[in-house]
Amino acid sequence: MNERVARHYEKADIVAVIEGALRAAGKDPANLEPADLAPVDEFHVRGRTATKELAGRLGVDGTMHVLDVGSGLGGPSRLLAAEYGCRVSGIDLTAAYCEAAAVLAGWVGLDGLVSYRQGDALDLPFDDNAFDAAWTIHAAMNISDKPRMYAEVRRVLRPGGRFAVYDVLQGAGGEAFYPAPWARHPSISFLVTPDELRALLAEAGFAITGWRDTTELGRDWFRQVAARLSGGG
Question: Maximum Cα–Cα distance for the chain, whole Å?
Answer without folding.
Answer: 51
